[in-house]
Amino acid sequence: MANAKRVGDIDFWRGAVLIAILVDHIPGNLLESVTPRNFGLSDSSEAFVFISGLSVGMAYAPRAASRGLLAVARGCFERALKLYGVHLVLTLAALVIFAAAFWMSGVEDLIEAHGRSYVFDSPAAGFAGLVALTHQLGYFNILPLYIVLMLWAPLALALAMRDVRLALAVSAGVYGASRVFGLRPPNWPEPGTWFFNPFAWQLIFTIGLVSAIVWRKGPPRAVPSLVLASLAVVAIAALVATSVAGVAPGLHDAVAARLDLAKQDLGLARLAHFAALAYLVAVAPPLKRIVDSVVGRAIQGLGRNGLSVFAAGCVISALGQAFLGATQPYSSAGIEQIAGLAYTVAGVAALFALARRIECRNTPVPPSAAVGFGAA
């Protein structure tokens, strides 16, 4: 019963993250200004990867104990292969959407921004890069990270089942080496490196995986000193992110220049802020009541069908970007904001409708089978 409750909590937060990702991926809409990234040093990316690690740990640790690590490695590889196929389909869908929007509007930015220009200018090399995962479109670059993390998962799980401290030490060592020596997968055919560096981001994934193993006997306890320290980190981060609610203009930029906030390499300030926030979420009783509410259960539905909802969100956000980009030359800023808000609300509603339809049509997947995105 307690395990089912923890799975429900994870589904809720996975669903909430998917909503935030959709809102943040439709630039210019009014809701974009109230997502968590505006009030702290981390954003939905950290939550996405941590929850993925947590889900993998919950799903595969029992399987490793009963069927062995080879079965786990095979399952993780099959999952990575499925994610690879989904990534390619979503990328191609995005290219078709933006090409169609350009054809109808003539707005060149639609086929030039966020890595799209190389595919249209040099199709052979561009598509080869897409297939090799060395060329990733903007807003479509988190699945390649997750694919690599699923390949890393069997080793991380093997280490964690021997000793969670060993898993964390090895993961931290890989993270440290990536930061010190600049280890990053290269882009091709364009220069540069991956937007999400898997050598760095595996740390937060591994922390999630280890947490699943540690929490099998129960959720974390609220330790007063840790709660106070976490509250201080979250509060200070909120003041910095908002420049004290606009009272101290320039504070965010001044402080950010002195903190390790690199998103590509999972800056330490981002990691510390997310760790504090995640701990508070895990031990806060009022939030548990929200999770169990009517709205909370609907959000859990998004999380239970995470991969389908994520894929739909990618298509919805691409359609929104294309529509707003194509109409921008012909509309005022006010009209664009209203249209963006209306579209975003409709998009979120569509995600709920999709999850509801899937759950009404199919037999629900047992909670222990949910991995990363939940039911595929």
UniProtKB/TrEMBL annotation:
UniProt KW keywords: Membrane, Transmembrane, Transmembrane helix
Pfam families on file: OpgC_C (PF10129)
Keyword presence, Transmembrane helix: yes
Domain of life per record: Bacteria
Transmembrane parts of this sequence: 83-104, 124-152, 164-182, 194-214, 226-248, 268-287, 307-326, 338-355
Protein name as it appears in the record: OpgC protein
Organism per entry: Roseiarcus fermentans
